[in-house]
Each structure stands twice: as structure tokens, then as C-alpha cells.
Design brief:
Elements: E1 3-14, E2 19-30, H1 34-38, H2 42-62, E3 64-67, E4 70-71, E5 75-83, E6 90-99, E7 106-112, E8 116-117, E9 121-127, E10 133-138, E11 142-146, E12 150-155, E13 160-161, E14 164-170
Parallel strand pairs: 1-9
Antiparallel strand pairs: 1-2, 2-6, 3-4, 3-7, 5-6, 7-14, 8-13, 9-12, 10-14, 11-12
């Protein structure tokens, strides 16, 4: 397979009680249209989606995610395949969720993962509840905070990421 990763985006939504939801989107260039031809067979498509979920689950098991110093179990619950206007431009989207006890006052999210160099540009968006306030951020890449509760992170291809994220927020 000659499939090249082009770009990624992650959207985290924190509901304020216990649920963290993430939509993770990967865009690819698929010269041979491998993914496009998958949709010709429901059975092949289903097997590939199950395989992608398994691989994502294994990848997530290599990370350590803590909320308020307690480890949480992060789980991919859905994957889908779409195309961005061309059979050569597949998009794979995951829905990932986890639950964590949150407090009125300060809360801390931490994630430990393998450090490395970004193979493609990616952005991460964190959306906290309306009355929340982000108070501290330790993360690779550039970031900005909008309206006290929306965090936007940008990492560019070839940029080093250190394998650690920390976001402190007040509810």
C-alpha cells in the first residue's frame, strides 16, 4: 500500500461532569485508491474498520492518560472512512471517549506518550464548558487560548514533540 499521511486534527470536548469526547481525523493521499476500493465489498470494509479500531486501541494503550492524578481508560468506540472529494483522498475518523471525575475548582489532564517528530501538520482543539477557565498549558507546538476555555494547538511537520501534555483548567 502506498498511503501517505497528509494532515490530522483532534477535537476534544469536555462536558463538565465526567465525559471527555475526542474526534480524531486523519487525512491521507492514497495513490492506488486502496481505501476507495474497500467500499466495493462490505465484508472487506468491515474487516478493515475492525482492524483500524484494534490498532488505534493498541496505540492508545501505549499512552498514559491521567485526570486529577488518576489513570483513565481511553477507548476508541467508532471509526469511519470518508473521502475528501476524490478517491485518492481518504479520511479516517475515530470517536474516542473516556470518563474521569472532575471537581469544582482546578482539574488537571496529563498525557504521556512516545516523543518524536511530526510526520505531518496537525491541530488539536480543546473545548471546555462555558464557565471553565484554562489556567496552565504544557504542550509541544504553538498554542493559543480563546475565551478562557478553548485551547488551539498547532504542530507542524518536522517539529519535535516531547511526549507530554498537561492542561490545568478550572470548573
Amino acid at each position: 500500500m502506498d498511503i501517505e499521511p497528509l494532515h490530522a486534527q483532534a477535537f476534544f470536548k469536555v462536558n463538565g461532569s465526567s465525559l471527555f469526547s475526542e474526534i480524531l481525523i486523519f487525512d491521507y493521499y492514497d495513490r492506488e485508491q486502496y481505501y476507495y476500493h474497500l467500499i466495493e465489498s462490505e465484508d472487506r470494509y468491515r474487516r478493515e474498520m475492525e482492524s483500524l479500531l484494534t490498532v488505534m486501541n493498541e496505540f492508545l494503550r501505549e499512552e498514559k492518560v491521567l485526570v486529577n492524578k488518576k489513570e483513565v481508560e481511553v477507548e476508541p468506540i467508532m471509526v469511519s472512512l470518508d473521502f475528501r472529494g476524490s478517491p485518492e483522498l481518504p479520511t479516517i475518523t475515530y470517536l474516542i471517549e473516556f470518563h474521569a471525575k472532575l471537581f469544582n475548582g482546578l482539574n488537571e489532564y496529563e498525557c504521556y506518550y512516545e516523543e518524536g517528530m511530526a510526520e505531518y501538520d496537525y491541530e488539536v482543539y480543546w473545548i471546555f464548558p462555558v464557565n471553565a477557565k484554562i489556567t496552565e498549558v504544557e504542550i509541544s507546538g504553538e498554542y493559543e487560548i480563546l475565551n478562557d476555555r478553548i485551547l488551539i494547538i498547532n504542530v507542524r511537520r518536522g517539529e519535535y514533540y516531547n511526549g507530554y501534555e498537561k492542561i490545568v483548567f478550572k470548573l
